[in-house]
Specification:
single chain; mainly beta; Pectate Lyase C-like; 14-stranded parallel sheet; 26 strands; globular; Pectin_lyas_fold; lyase; signal; Polysaccharide_Lyase_1
Length: about 375
Protein backbone atom coordinates (compact mmCIF):
# COMPACT_ATOMS: atom_id res chain seq x y z
CA UNK A 1 0.00 0.00 0.00
CA UNK A 2 2.80 2.43 0.86
CA UNK A 3 4.49 1.84 -2.49
CA UNK A 4 1.19 2.34 -4.31
CA UNK A 5 0.50 5.63 -2.52
CA UNK A 6 4.02 6.84 -3.24
CA UNK A 7 3.74 5.91 -6.91
CA UNK A 8 0.39 7.69 -7.23
CA UNK A 9 1.76 10.84 -5.58
CA UNK A 10 4.83 10.80 -7.82
CA UNK A 11 2.80 10.19 -10.99
CA UNK A 12 0.40 12.99 -10.13
CA UNK A 13 3.29 15.44 -9.86
CA UNK A 14 4.62 14.38 -13.24
CA UNK A 15 1.21 14.81 -14.84
CA UNK A 16 0.94 18.35 -13.52
CA UNK A 17 4.40 19.34 -14.64
CA UNK A 18 6.11 19.49 -11.27
CA UNK A 19 9.89 19.76 -11.39
CA UNK A 20 12.32 16.90 -11.68
CA UNK A 21 15.17 19.17 -12.76
CA UNK A 22 17.98 21.08 -11.11
CA UNK A 23 17.25 24.41 -9.44
CA UNK A 24 16.97 27.35 -11.80
CA UNK A 25 15.80 30.26 -9.61
CA UNK A 26 19.38 30.98 -8.45
CA UNK A 27 22.50 29.02 -7.66
CA UNK A 28 21.82 26.84 -4.61
CA UNK A 29 18.03 26.99 -4.84
CA UNK A 30 16.35 23.72 -3.86
CA UNK A 31 12.95 22.10 -3.86
CA UNK A 32 9.68 22.60 -5.63
CA UNK A 33 9.82 26.41 -5.68
CA UNK A 34 13.23 26.41 -7.33
CA UNK A 35 11.60 26.52 -10.78
CA UNK A 36 10.41 30.09 -10.12
CA UNK A 37 11.74 32.32 -12.87
CA UNK A 38 11.33 35.75 -11.27
CA UNK A 39 11.72 38.97 -13.23
CA UNK A 40 14.30 40.55 -15.54
CA UNK A 41 13.49 44.27 -15.83
CA UNK A 42 15.67 46.27 -13.44
CA UNK A 43 14.04 48.46 -10.80
CA UNK A 44 16.00 50.09 -7.96
CA UNK A 45 14.25 50.95 -4.69
CA UNK A 46 15.73 54.30 -3.65
CA UNK A 47 13.59 55.34 -0.69
CA UNK A 48 12.06 53.90 2.48
CA UNK A 49 8.84 55.82 1.88
CA UNK A 50 5.63 53.82 1.77
CA UNK A 51 4.46 54.91 -1.68
CA UNK A 52 5.53 56.84 -4.73
CA UNK A 53 8.33 56.66 -7.25
CA UNK A 54 11.32 54.63 -6.11
CA UNK A 55 9.43 52.82 -3.34
CA UNK A 56 9.08 49.11 -2.71
CA UNK A 57 5.32 49.37 -3.23
CA UNK A 58 5.86 50.89 -6.67
CA UNK A 59 8.58 48.36 -7.49
CA UNK A 60 6.30 45.34 -7.02
CA UNK A 61 3.28 46.92 -8.75
CA UNK A 62 4.27 45.67 -12.21
CA UNK A 63 5.22 42.17 -13.27
CA UNK A 64 8.56 41.19 -14.73
CA UNK A 65 10.76 43.26 -12.46
CA UNK A 66 14.11 42.37 -10.92
CA UNK A 67 14.27 44.56 -7.82
CA UNK A 68 17.39 45.81 -6.07
CA UNK A 69 17.84 48.28 -3.20
CA UNK A 70 20.09 51.33 -2.77
CA UNK A 71 18.70 52.00 0.71
CA UNK A 72 18.64 50.06 3.96
CA UNK A 73 16.28 50.01 6.93
CA UNK A 74 12.63 49.30 7.63
CA UNK A 75 9.89 50.27 5.20
CA UNK A 76 6.92 51.05 7.45
CA UNK A 77 3.86 49.96 5.49
CA UNK A 78 0.66 51.96 5.88
CA UNK A 79 -1.41 49.27 4.13
CA UNK A 80 -0.82 45.76 2.76
CA UNK A 81 1.39 45.38 -0.30
CA UNK A 82 0.31 43.13 -3.17
CA UNK A 83 3.05 41.67 -5.33
CA UNK A 84 2.77 41.17 -9.07
CA UNK A 85 3.80 37.98 -10.85
CA UNK A 86 7.27 37.35 -12.27
CA UNK A 87 9.22 39.25 -9.63
CA UNK A 88 12.67 38.89 -8.11
CA UNK A 89 13.25 40.74 -4.84
CA UNK A 90 16.99 40.90 -4.12
CA UNK A 91 17.17 41.99 -0.50
CA UNK A 92 20.85 41.04 -0.44
CA UNK A 93 21.62 44.11 -2.58
CA UNK A 94 20.62 46.54 0.18
CA UNK A 95 23.48 48.27 2.00
CA UNK A 96 24.18 47.06 5.53
CA UNK A 97 22.25 46.49 7.78
CA UNK A 98 19.75 45.26 5.17
CA UNK A 99 16.15 45.84 4.19
CA UNK A 100 12.74 44.85 5.53
CA UNK A 101 9.11 45.79 5.90
CA UNK A 102 7.02 46.12 9.04
CA UNK A 103 3.43 46.63 10.16
CA UNK A 104 1.40 45.15 7.28
CA UNK A 105 1.03 42.02 5.14
CA UNK A 106 2.98 41.23 1.99
CA UNK A 107 0.72 39.28 -0.37
CA UNK A 108 1.56 37.16 -3.40
CA UNK A 109 -1.96 35.76 -3.48
CA UNK A 110 -2.81 34.24 -6.84
CA UNK A 111 0.52 35.24 -8.40
CA UNK A 112 3.29 33.15 -9.96
CA UNK A 113 7.06 32.95 -10.39
CA UNK A 114 8.27 34.95 -7.41
CA UNK A 115 11.78 34.86 -5.91
CA UNK A 116 12.40 36.62 -2.59
CA UNK A 117 15.84 36.58 -0.98
CA UNK A 118 17.37 38.17 2.10
CA UNK A 119 14.23 40.07 3.03
CA UNK A 120 12.66 40.78 6.44
CA UNK A 121 8.89 40.69 6.98
CA UNK A 122 7.87 41.83 10.47
CA UNK A 123 4.11 42.29 10.74
CA UNK A 124 3.47 42.81 14.47
CA UNK A 125 0.66 44.50 16.32
CA UNK A 126 0.83 47.58 14.11
CA UNK A 127 -1.27 45.41 11.76
CA UNK A 128 -4.90 46.51 11.93
CA UNK A 129 -6.43 43.37 10.37
CA UNK A 130 -6.13 40.17 12.41
CA UNK A 131 -6.97 38.05 9.34
CA UNK A 132 -3.72 39.04 7.61
CA UNK A 133 -0.43 37.13 7.69
CA UNK A 134 3.14 38.40 7.50
CA UNK A 135 3.49 36.76 4.08
CA UNK A 136 0.51 35.43 2.14
CA UNK A 137 0.96 33.30 -0.97
CA UNK A 138 -2.47 31.72 -1.13
CA UNK A 139 -3.21 30.17 -4.55
CA UNK A 140 0.24 31.23 -5.77
CA UNK A 141 2.43 29.11 -8.05
CA UNK A 142 6.22 28.77 -8.20
CA UNK A 143 7.40 30.77 -5.19
CA UNK A 144 10.73 30.55 -3.36
CA UNK A 145 11.71 32.40 -0.19
CA UNK A 146 15.37 32.03 0.71
CA UNK A 147 17.31 33.54 3.61
CA UNK A 148 14.25 35.52 4.65
CA UNK A 149 13.25 36.50 8.20
CA UNK A 150 9.58 36.38 9.09
CA UNK A 151 8.53 37.45 12.57
CA UNK A 152 5.50 38.65 14.51
CA UNK A 153 2.97 37.18 12.06
CA UNK A 154 -0.61 37.84 13.11
CA UNK A 155 -2.82 35.24 11.39
CA UNK A 156 0.03 33.03 10.20
CA UNK A 157 3.66 33.87 9.70
CA UNK A 158 3.34 32.36 6.22
CA UNK A 159 -0.01 31.50 4.66
CA UNK A 160 0.04 29.32 1.56
CA UNK A 161 -3.42 27.80 1.23
CA UNK A 162 -3.82 26.59 -2.34
CA UNK A 163 -0.19 27.25 -3.21
CA UNK A 164 1.63 25.05 -5.75
CA UNK A 165 5.42 24.57 -6.05
CA UNK A 166 6.70 26.33 -2.94
CA UNK A 167 10.12 26.43 -1.28
CA UNK A 168 10.98 28.16 1.99
CA UNK A 169 14.67 27.66 2.70
CA UNK A 170 17.39 28.97 5.01
CA UNK A 171 14.87 31.25 6.68
CA UNK A 172 13.85 32.24 10.20
CA UNK A 173 10.15 31.91 11.03
CA UNK A 174 9.75 33.14 14.57
CA UNK A 175 7.65 34.65 17.32
CA UNK A 176 4.20 34.70 15.75
CA UNK A 177 1.62 36.72 17.67
CA UNK A 178 -2.17 36.65 17.26
CA UNK A 179 -2.91 33.00 16.46
CA UNK A 180 0.77 32.21 17.20
CA UNK A 181 1.05 30.00 14.11
CA UNK A 182 4.10 29.39 11.94
CA UNK A 183 2.92 28.42 8.44
CA UNK A 184 -0.14 26.92 6.77
CA UNK A 185 0.19 25.25 3.39
CA UNK A 186 -2.41 23.38 1.38
CA UNK A 187 -2.22 21.83 -2.10
CA UNK A 188 1.57 21.85 -2.58
CA UNK A 189 3.96 20.28 -3.25
CA UNK A 190 6.22 22.17 -0.91
CA UNK A 191 9.80 22.11 0.35
CA UNK A 192 10.84 23.38 3.78
CA UNK A 193 14.61 23.25 3.99
CA UNK A 194 17.08 24.36 6.68
CA UNK A 195 14.71 26.79 8.39
CA UNK A 196 14.70 27.93 12.02
CA UNK A 197 11.23 27.77 13.58
CA UNK A 198 11.03 29.49 16.97
CA UNK A 199 8.38 29.88 19.68
CA UNK A 200 5.09 29.14 17.94
CA UNK A 201 1.98 27.53 19.35
CA UNK A 202 1.47 25.35 16.26
CA UNK A 203 1.86 24.98 12.45
CA UNK A 204 5.60 24.58 11.98
CA UNK A 205 4.24 24.03 9.38
CA UNK A 206 0.66 22.80 8.99
CA UNK A 207 1.15 20.87 5.76
CA UNK A 208 -1.83 19.55 3.84
CA UNK A 209 0.07 18.60 0.73
CA UNK A 210 2.96 16.47 -0.49
CA UNK A 211 5.94 17.77 1.41
CA UNK A 212 9.70 17.72 1.84
CA UNK A 213 10.73 18.76 5.37
CA UNK A 214 14.48 18.52 5.66
CA UNK A 215 17.20 19.85 8.00
CA UNK A 216 14.86 22.20 9.90
CA UNK A 217 15.38 23.24 13.53
CA UNK A 218 12.22 23.65 15.60
CA UNK A 219 12.58 25.29 19.02
CA UNK A 220 10.21 25.95 21.93
CA UNK A 221 7.18 24.52 20.17
CA UNK A 222 3.79 23.52 21.50
CA UNK A 223 3.03 21.61 18.30
CA UNK A 224 5.61 21.35 15.55
CA UNK A 225 5.13 19.40 12.28
CA UNK A 226 1.36 19.22 11.86
CA UNK A 227 -1.12 17.77 9.38
CA UNK A 228 -4.36 18.09 11.39
CA UNK A 229 -7.74 16.75 10.41
CA UNK A 230 -7.86 16.37 6.66
CA UNK A 231 -9.52 14.17 4.08
CA UNK A 232 -6.46 14.40 1.83
CA UNK A 233 -3.93 11.61 1.35
CA UNK A 234 -0.48 13.18 1.32
CA UNK A 235 3.12 12.03 1.41
CA UNK A 236 5.75 13.56 3.68
CA UNK A 237 9.53 13.20 3.64
CA UNK A 238 10.65 14.28 7.13
CA UNK A 239 14.42 13.90 7.25
CA UNK A 240 17.25 15.00 9.58
CA UNK A 241 15.34 17.66 11.52
CA UNK A 242 16.01 18.60 15.16
CA UNK A 243 13.09 19.28 17.51
CA UNK A 244 14.15 21.08 20.71
CA UNK A 245 11.77 21.77 23.56
CA UNK A 246 11.77 25.04 25.46
CA UNK A 247 10.02 26.78 28.36
CA UNK A 248 6.71 26.96 26.43
CA UNK A 249 6.69 23.31 25.35
CA UNK A 250 3.93 21.49 27.22
CA UNK A 251 4.36 18.08 25.56
CA UNK A 252 7.58 17.07 23.85
CA UNK A 253 5.67 14.32 22.02
CA UNK A 254 3.85 16.94 19.98
CA UNK A 255 6.89 17.23 17.71
CA UNK A 256 4.63 15.42 15.21
CA UNK A 257 1.04 16.52 15.68
CA UNK A 258 -2.23 15.13 14.32
CA UNK A 259 -0.64 12.93 11.67
CA UNK A 260 -3.29 10.29 10.96
CA UNK A 261 -3.54 7.16 8.85
CA UNK A 262 -4.47 9.14 5.74
CA UNK A 263 -0.84 10.17 5.55
CA UNK A 264 2.25 8.37 4.25
CA UNK A 265 5.50 9.38 5.94
CA UNK A 266 9.17 8.67 5.43
CA UNK A 267 10.81 9.81 8.69
CA UNK A 268 14.52 9.29 9.13
CA UNK A 269 17.38 10.89 11.01
CA UNK A 270 15.17 13.16 13.12
CA UNK A 271 16.10 13.97 16.72
CA UNK A 272 14.23 15.32 19.75
CA UNK A 273 15.98 17.10 22.64
CA UNK A 274 13.38 17.19 25.41
CA UNK A 275 15.31 17.72 28.65
CA UNK A 276 15.79 21.52 28.53
CA UNK A 277 19.24 21.24 30.09
CA UNK A 278 21.13 23.73 27.92
CA UNK A 279 22.95 21.00 25.98
CA UNK A 280 22.14 19.57 22.57
CA UNK A 281 21.75 15.90 23.50
CA UNK A 282 18.58 14.59 21.90
CA UNK A 283 17.55 11.10 20.88
CA UNK A 284 16.15 9.67 17.66
CA UNK A 285 12.53 10.70 17.00
CA UNK A 286 11.03 9.07 13.92
CA UNK A 287 7.64 7.82 15.14
CA UNK A 288 4.95 9.87 13.43
CA UNK A 289 1.51 9.16 14.81
CA UNK A 290 -0.63 6.62 12.98
CA UNK A 291 0.68 7.47 9.51
CA UNK A 292 1.56 4.74 7.06
CA UNK A 293 5.34 4.31 7.23
CA UNK A 294 7.26 4.56 3.97
CA UNK A 295 10.46 2.56 3.62
CA UNK A 296 11.97 5.12 1.26
CA UNK A 297 11.26 8.78 0.44
CA UNK A 298 8.24 9.55 -1.70
CA UNK A 299 10.21 12.09 -3.77
CA UNK A 300 13.42 11.49 -5.67
CA UNK A 301 15.49 14.46 -4.45
CA UNK A 302 14.80 14.19 -0.73
CA UNK A 303 17.77 12.04 0.27
CA UNK A 304 20.31 14.05 -1.71
CA UNK A 305 18.91 17.25 -0.22
CA UNK A 306 19.32 15.85 3.30
CA UNK A 307 23.09 16.22 3.22
CA UNK A 308 23.37 17.23 6.89
CA UNK A 309 22.61 15.13 9.94
CA UNK A 310 20.21 16.66 12.44
CA UNK A 311 23.13 17.78 14.63
CA UNK A 312 24.97 19.23 11.64
CA UNK A 313 21.77 20.97 10.57
CA UNK A 314 21.57 22.63 14.00
CA UNK A 315 25.04 24.13 13.58
CA UNK A 316 24.38 25.15 9.99
CA UNK A 317 21.00 26.75 10.63
CA UNK A 318 22.17 28.60 13.74
CA UNK A 319 25.00 30.09 11.70
CA UNK A 320 23.23 30.76 8.41
CA UNK A 321 19.42 31.04 8.61
CA UNK A 322 17.65 34.32 8.04
CA UNK A 323 18.47 37.55 6.26
CA UNK A 324 22.06 38.72 6.35
CA UNK A 325 23.50 40.55 8.15
CA UNK A 326 21.49 39.52 11.18
CA UNK A 327 19.61 42.35 12.79
CA UNK A 328 18.43 42.89 16.35
CA UNK A 329 15.37 40.64 16.04
CA UNK A 330 17.15 37.65 14.52
CA UNK A 331 20.07 37.95 16.94
CA UNK A 332 17.56 37.81 19.78
CA UNK A 333 15.75 34.83 18.26
CA UNK A 334 18.93 32.84 17.69
CA UNK A 335 20.17 33.55 21.21
CA UNK A 336 17.03 32.00 22.69
CA UNK A 337 17.55 28.87 20.61
CA UNK A 338 21.17 28.63 21.70
CA UNK A 339 19.97 28.42 25.31
CA UNK A 340 18.76 24.93 24.36
CA UNK A 341 15.69 24.78 26.50
CA UNK A 342 16.21 27.43 29.13
CA UNK A 343 15.02 30.59 27.33
CA UNK A 344 12.21 31.59 25.00
CA UNK A 345 8.51 32.42 25.14
CA UNK A 346 5.44 32.31 22.95
CA UNK A 347 4.27 35.91 22.81
CA UNK A 348 1.23 37.99 21.87
CA UNK A 349 2.99 41.31 21.19
CA UNK A 350 6.41 41.98 19.70
CA UNK A 351 7.04 44.52 22.47
CA UNK A 352 7.40 41.53 24.79
CA UNK A 353 10.86 40.97 23.33
CA UNK A 354 12.10 44.13 25.03
CA UNK A 355 13.87 45.12 21.82
CA UNK A 356 14.10 48.66 20.53
CA UNK A 357 11.54 50.29 18.23
CA UNK A 358 8.60 48.91 20.25
CA UNK A 359 9.96 45.39 19.89
CA UNK A 360 10.47 45.48 16.12
CA UNK A 361 14.17 46.09 16.53
CA UNK A 362 16.10 48.74 14.66
CA UNK A 363 17.49 48.38 11.16
Amino acid sequence: MAQIKRAIAFASLLSLGFPLVSAVAFEGAVGFGSIATGGTTSYVVTTLADSGTGTFRDAVSESGRNITFSVSGYIVLESPVSLSSDLTINGQTAPSPGIGVMAREISASGKSNIIIRNFRMRQGNEETDDTKSAFNMGDATNVILDHCSVAFGVYDSIDAVGAVNVTVSNSIIALPIGQQFGAHLETGPSTWYANLWVSAHNRQPLSKGNTQYINNIIYNYQAAYTVADTGGDFSHDIINNYFITGPSTTSASDDYYQIDDNQSVYASGNFLDSNKDGVLNGAAANTVGSAEVLSSPWYSTSLSMASLTAAEAYSYVIANAGASPRDEVDTYVVSTVESLGTEGAIITNQDSTGLSNDGYGTL
